[in-house]
Amino acid sequence: MRDVPSKQLDDTRLPEIDRLRGLVMVIMALDHMRDFFDADALRFSPTDLDHTYPFLFFTRFITHFCAPTFAVLAGVSAYLYGARRSHKELTLFLATRGVWLILLEIVVISPTWGGPGRISLGTLWAIGCGLLALSVLSLARPAVVFAIGAAILLGHNLLDGIKAADFGALAPWWRLLHEPGALPFDLPGHLLYPALPWIGVLALGYGLGPLFKRPAQERDAVLRKAGLGALALFIVLRATNFYGDPRAFTLRADEIGSALSFLNVTKYPPSLLYLLVTLGGAALALPALERLRGAAGRALVVFGRTPLFFYVLHLYAGAAGALALAAWRGYSLQDISAVIKSGAPPADFGTGLAGAYVAWILVVVGLYPLCRWFAEIKRRRSDLWWLSYL
């Protein structure tokens, strides 16, 4: 449910990368405001075809593009960073960033979702694991890293039949890799993003890194072909139910329902079909964003250069706003906790999906000046090493 950015790596400043990164930040915020303000998020999943409706489904579906796009760009950025440095510097950089993101997930991000004392391992955890894996994989040639990433993406659904319960006491360790569920050592909380497929996405991005050293026209031609090829493969595999997603496509009573079923791919863990449709879309979006100019292009660049800063601020702003709204309507903290646990909020709880869109616009617009200020600080104060962690 949470599409979250990793820390932007110190890549060469390619505006189209920043624009794409910024775009997924803005879209990601929509999904999180839906979580905070639309009480239907407590009642059912927006991809539950027996309860959802098209506007809600597509609000969720468009945000599917965020985590894979950010992860693959993190891999690209890792390559671009390492292209100007020694293997030792790159390894240290990726390892420390990976550990930092995992700690940030546990200490700073988890309370916004599960409350104090509970751990929720989401995308920061997954991308942190990917950076740790890249700190080792990057010792190999990019083509080898690309092949490893592609093999994970293409093959990890073969592991769907292996369940954590088959491992007995070691079950939580399997969940860390490939199955959402409980945490090791009986830690309070939940694992939402198993690491293995996300490691594959970052490895794929790292392997694509040399493409971003080529002239833009040549690079964009390759990305368009790759994007169209990924979408074509998605359509073939999805239509035939041959392979690539544990949730089969089925014809439903009406055309809209059938269309939703066709697009209803699995994110936890991200299936091959999920990654084909999202990464295929991202490959087509990046060349288009290269031509985006004006205020919109500049705004996306700002968000793309301050992703972690925006991510933390927007979560706390959204959570605070949702709590303030509930308190204004007369709910105590105990009432709110009981509603969340019950999964059956009263009719006046939250704002509905339309209100979530309003909250999204307010948060994005409200945080833009802060992100622009912080982006300028990062640009001017490259001497402050700790800024690279924010």
Automatic annotation (TrEMBL):
**Residue ranges of the TM segments:** 57-80, 92-113, 119-137, 144-171, 191-209, 221-240, 271-289, 309-329, 349-371
Question: Which InterPro entries does the annotation name?
Answer: HGSNAT_cat
Whether Manganese counts among this entry's keywords is: no
Report domain Heparan-alpha-glucosaminide N-acetyltransferase catalytic positions.
13-223
Source domain of life = Bacteria
| Keyword annotations of the record | Membrane, Transmembrane, Transmembrane helix
Name used for this protein in its record: Heparan-alpha-glucosaminide N-acetyltransferase catalytic domain-containing protein
Q: Which Pfam families match?
A: HGSNAT_cat
